[in-house]
Write a structure and sequence with these properties.
This protein is α/β, with parallel strands linked by helices and 220 residues long. The protein contains 7 helices and 9 strands; from the N terminus they run E-H-E-H-H-E-E-H-H-E-H-E-H-E-E-E. It has a 7-stranded mixed beta sheet, sandwiched between helices. A two-stranded antiparallel sheet has the order 8-9.
Amino acid sequence: MHVVLFGSGKGGVGKSTLAANVAYALATRIKTLLMDFSAFDKTSTSMLVPGCVSKFGVYDWLFYFREAMGVVPEIETCERRDVLLEVLPPGSMEEAVQTLSYSVLAKRVKTLMDMMIKHFSIVIVDYPGRSIHTDPLLQALMSHVDHLIIVMEPTEASTAEARALFNFATQRYDPPPVVSSILNKYAGEKVLLELRSAGGFVEKVPLIGEVMALGRNPHL
């Protein structure tokens, strides 16, 4: 299983749109799961499976998981039938999960990811714009991420959050995930993001990509 996480320290940068499109494209070839952690707007779920009626999402699974009893709740996904794609919606327990400690979440996330290995070739994670420094769930998830894709806007606040996410992911995990950056360039500006590695090397990355909103039936 290969895990790709689309993240940013700021919301509204086009992350969910990009995650949905990449998941759809991959699902034309291999069995793919999209895990939607964006409970506020459910963008990727509504784009890919607008008729999804699953009431038990990823946050519900993480919250109601009972380690002491050895009872693991069933995973409920919504299937997109024209491609090899399933979507795990966010559910309703996001705020409750955010109160759990890192140690608890790390165990539950590991159990969840171990389950996914048996069923999917690739997992796309759509994660909301929250700071990894204060988010124990994102910290736990990052331990299982092979490829981190940071999505941002050409603004000072967005690039600052992107730099913080890059530094945390590359310095706190061994081995660190592969990191890519994508700019949602909405006004034609060009920015240069300076990424400083743990070894002191500095890489200046020109951010020239574009993200398009492609509608309810996304295609690349």
